[in-house]
Amino acid sequence: MLRDETKRFVENEVLSEASERDPNEEPMSNELINQLAEMGFFGILIDEEYGGLGMDLKSYAVIAEELSRGWLSVGSIIARGQSLSGATEEQKEKYLSKMASGEMLKSIAISEPSAGSDVANMQTRAERDGDEYVLNGQKTWITFAKGSDFILTYAVTDPDAEPAYRGISGFIVEKPAGTFDRDGLSGQPIDKIGYHGWKTWEVNFDDVRISADKLVGGEEGKGFYQIMDFFEEGRVHTAARSVGLARGALEDSLQYAQERAQFGEPISEFQAIRFKLADMATQIEAARALMLLVADAVDSDEQANAEAAMAKLFASDIAEQVTSEGIQIHGGYGYTTDFDVERYWRDARLTRIFEGTNEIQKRIIADSLLP
């Protein structure tokens, strides 16, 4: 029922907006974001006591897959609710209910120009000054930075910490949604080849002052652990989004192959096309099975770091392959913006990069296998 309800929403609301806006690089409408909020999609993983749906990671993955089948950006924005890892009880009470309802949505600032996969190498500083912290530095790859109500920002509070990751802390930097209207805060959009449903930003922190109670968890040096805490969730989410993109390419290709005629018959009658479709369907089912297996493990409180990396790695790899084959089945028309398959292809390429590059996933997997 959960999958069916989300599928109907995608068919009725998401696909038409994606097809209209994405080719023009226009972000999703506020009306669509409000509809996501009304359906409770920003609070899927938030406990009911804080106003969320209190559902498990497997349910979250199912919803993310369906939404991404329509538009990757929509399958991604739901993560701007969901959790505030490591927060104090006071912080949970203040933010989680508003996040669950969509009233307050976050963006996340981790990466920097010189610190992408190497999180511990971040240079942004947060220095204590009485009852405040002063943030200075530059963050990049912050999707929804301008649209969010607060930027969950990770910065170095102890530059002498050994190892360096123990000197990282998280901060809640509130701002008006839709602007960078806060002293010392500014941003520049990043031009991308896809993922057009929302903007991605570089953000500068120049003596940005925040009160000490915005330190996530109320204790310095916990930021790295807070980041790691949502990586399993994030990698399952990325696997689900990848499966959704691949499904979009398969379903559109199935329809096109039965409608497109060459040499007096639909191209779906040609063995070359039929075998492509068979391979695409098999890859999707395998990726979904692994993704759901990992989600079940996380829901059962099992350690699944390597398995989550496997799910993300495999699903994102097949997403690029399947969407590319979708373009091939569409022929020259697949290389135009007249068909959605080109959007799936552009967006699928990103899934091999964000939430940790696939090379990082292989390192995690290898480290779990070898001393």
TrEMBL record:
InterPro entries: Acyl-CoA_DH_CS (IPR006089), Acyl-CoA_Oxase/DH_mid-dom (IPR006091), Acyl-CoA_Oxase/DH_mid-dom_sf (IPR046373), AcylCo_DH-like_C (IPR036250), AcylCo_DH/oxidase_C (IPR009075), AcylCoA_DH/ox_N (IPR013786), AcylCoA_DH/ox_N_sf (IPR037069), AcylCoA_DH/oxidase_NM_dom_sf (IPR009100)
Keyword Metal-binding in record: no
Residue ranges of domain Acyl-CoA dehydrogenase/oxidase C-terminal in the record: 221-370
Keywords: FAD, Flavoprotein, Oxidoreductase, Plasmid
Tagged with keyword Endoplasmic reticulum: no
Cofactor(s) for this UniProt protein: FAD
Domain Acyl-CoA oxidase/dehydrogenase middle: from-to ranges: 108-208
All residue ranges annotated as the Acyl-CoA dehydrogenase/oxidase N-terminal domain in the record: 1-103
Pfam families: Acyl-CoA_dh_1 (PF00441), Acyl-CoA_dh_M (PF02770), Acyl-CoA_dh_N (PF02771)
Highest rank taxon of the organism: Archaea
Example of a GO MF term: acyl-CoA dehydrogenase activity
Family: Belongs to the acyl-CoA dehydrogenase family.
Protein's name in the database: Acyl-CoA dehydrogenase
Record organism: Natrarchaeobaculum sulfurireducens
